[in-house]
Amino acid sequence: MKLFYRHFGEGQPIIILHGIFGISDNWVTIGRKLAEEFSVYILDLRNHGQSPHSDSFNYIAMMEDIEEFIEEHNLDNPVLIGHSMGGKVAMYYALDHPEKVHSLIVVDISMRQYPRRSAHINIIEAMMNVDFDKVEKREDVDEQLSETIPSKPIRLFVMKNLERTGQKTFKWRINLKALSENIEHVFEGVEHPGIFDNPALFIRGGKSDYISDEDMDKIYTHFPGATLETVEGASHWVHAEKPDELCALFSKFTGKACEFIAKRKKKS
């Protein structure tokens, strides 16, 4: 499957993978910062954003998409960065192709299987229940979503998936049918016998429960070069809430700056 992507910069390749309901646009700000030192590819995973739709939606299929992308673009020794669902895709790929990955950064997700999370189900149901016959502007969608999703930031995040089809007509770009039918796969753990010996950085939000101390035993078994960092005050959406702190950790891990050149010059 040929995935949609955004590309910035030159140098060693970095591939960024978003989480469920996300799109490549969510990572453009950080991607542009990294692009001062790297060749950054931000992907839309299958059934998300501008990438193709498919009835198949699981980690193996998404991992194979990444393999196809790396081969098609002749990317040598990329750094993989994945958030949430994208983090599990990145882990699967690193374990399955350890010789092809320079290093790994996983943002707020562990290897374990997670219990079915009602928040994800509620978001899917809320999106599927939007009556587009009653929508003429984005605010109309926001109003309908607010009946099920009280959080304004989450609604704004969800509405990144809106696509205008006419002057007063919209639709969801995301493949809600495939997500609804395969949502249990998203909660599955990373079950792979492989070992990834290269450097790996796991980052968790201080207010998130997605990576616990107990999770690290399994992570260290499969990623013996792993280190764990915590971004205090951040929830699961670390990149949205604490982008500067996240970039600082990226810089520490890669040995290269994660900030705009103009900003660095201004300080000097």
Distance between the termini: 45 Å
Radius of gyration: 18 Å
Main pleated sheet:
7 strands, mixed
Please state the overall shape, judged from the principal axes of the Cα atoms: globular
CATH H-level homologous superfamily name of the largest domain: Alpha/Beta hydrolase fold, catalytic domain
Number of domains: 2
Q: Helix/strand/pairing class, anyone?
A: alpha/beta
User: β content, as a range?
Assistant: 15-25%
CATH architecture of the largest domain: 3-Layer(aba) Sandwich
CATH topology of the largest domain, which one? Rossmann fold
* H/E series: EEHEHEHEHHHEEHEHEHHH
Unreliable spans: 261-268
Rounded mean pLDDT is 94
Name of the CATH class of the largest domain: Alpha Beta
Give the helix level as a range of percent. 25-40%
Helix count, DSSP H or I runs of 4 or more residues: 11
- Count the beta strands: 9
Itemize the secondary structure elements and their pairings.
Blueprint lengths: L4 E4 L4 E5 L10 H7 L4 E5 L15 H14 L6 E5 L1 H12 L6 E5 L10 H11 L9 H8 L6 H7 L3 E5 L2 E4 L3 H11 L13 E6 L10 H7 L3 E6 L6 H4 L1 H12 L6 H7 L1
Parallel strand pairs: 2-3, 2-4, 4-5, 5-8, 8-9
Antiparallel strand pairs: 1-3, 6-7
Helix pairs in contact: 2-3, 4-7
